[in-house]
Amino acid sequence: MSAREEILARVAKAVAGAADVEIPRGYRVAAATGDLVGLFAERVDDYRAVVHVLPAAEVPGRIAELVTGRRMIVPDGFDLPGHQSWDDLHTADGVVTGCAVGIALTGTIVLDHGPGQGARAQTLVPDYHLCVVRADQIVSSVPEAIARLDPSRPLTWISGPSATSDIELNRVEGVHGPRTLEVIIST
Asked: What sequence ranges are listed for the domain LUD (predicted)?
């Protein structure tokens, strides 16, 4: 018997005959009301990301300004007229993506790597990530976000630029992903 099988057998023996207990799952789903775009922008900014809140008509122009002169990865499904996608992941300056959902309360962006969001490595290796979030993709809370997501898809949850702290609590950015996160919220 393997160690795993032995542990599982002990657990099964310990709970044998125990009564089934119903666990209440009355989670609060929607927490924030009002200006979700404003709250999301504020929380994303708290993470040291660069945030732009723009009318939808201005978004293509701002994207063009931000990517001009940069070797950007443009994933399949992201419409960026006039810009050639850079193919070499390790020499790219950055990536531009959309997202699956944004969470206002936490300032978190979730990618499910569908059309326009790129492969996971494309969003984690380059030093710069420009992400476009539409206002209709912003939800109040994590439970609302989870309800919109397909659990069978690969999910990347982004709360600001990649950062960690060393033993002396000095913040170090760019260790596990992009050092710079720039977010355009399209209203």
From this structure: 89-185
- Category of 17 on φ-ψ map: left (φ > 0), alpha (ψ -120 to 50) or beta: left
**Could you give all domains of the chain from N- to C-terminal order, each with its CATH number?**
35-186 (3.40.50.10420)
Cα–Cα distance measured from residue 94 to residue 131, given in angstroms and rounded to the nearest whole number? 11
pLDDT digits (tens, 9 = 90+) for 96-149: 999 999 999 999 999 999 999 999 999 989 999 999 999 999 999 999 999 999
Q: List the structure tokens of 146.
A: 């989870």
133: exposed, middle or buried (Cβ count in 10 Å: 0-12, 13-18, 19+): buried
Cα gap 126→103, rounded to integer Å: 23
